[in-house]
Amino acid sequence: MRASVSDSDVLKSIEPSQVATYLHSSGWHQVTCVPNRVSSWTRNTFSETRLKIYLPLDPEFEDYSRRMSEIMETLEKAENRSQLDILSELITTAPNITIQGLVTEVDAHNTDSKNGEVTLLGVVVDKLRKIQIALDTNDYLLAVKAYQERLPLVVQGDLIKEDNNFVLKNPRNLTLQNL
Question: Residue 136 belongs to what domain range?
């Protein structure tokens, strides 16, 4: 049994351009496009089977999340992969997310400073990922403590994927998890 992605907020956060890039790199071919409305894609997997995807191009459409759910179902069948695996490649933003993880790197240039960057190893869409976080004042000192004592921490923020790297913007509510 595979998990289905049904969270409307998660589905709405998938960018149409990211889906189009993914489809193109996965052997799908764009057949038609109505600008700012929809594009249709096809993939010949076997001679007797032809799959189609209708990609909405405007995230403001009322049924956008339902259409993205249909795309996830089609990709799951076509690629014989879980929707979570596919989503991990499509997700570019996750607003107001809570991440728990371990600090694996501390910005060495700022060891005496009260602000700096840290790298957190945390779970994003069911996969361990490195997440860059710029912290200031007490949060940075708390993250350094977590790093030194190998304690997990929890932080909230807006997750953004930039050039295949995850960055947590607007970090807040950083707390240490005592073991």
Answer: 93-176
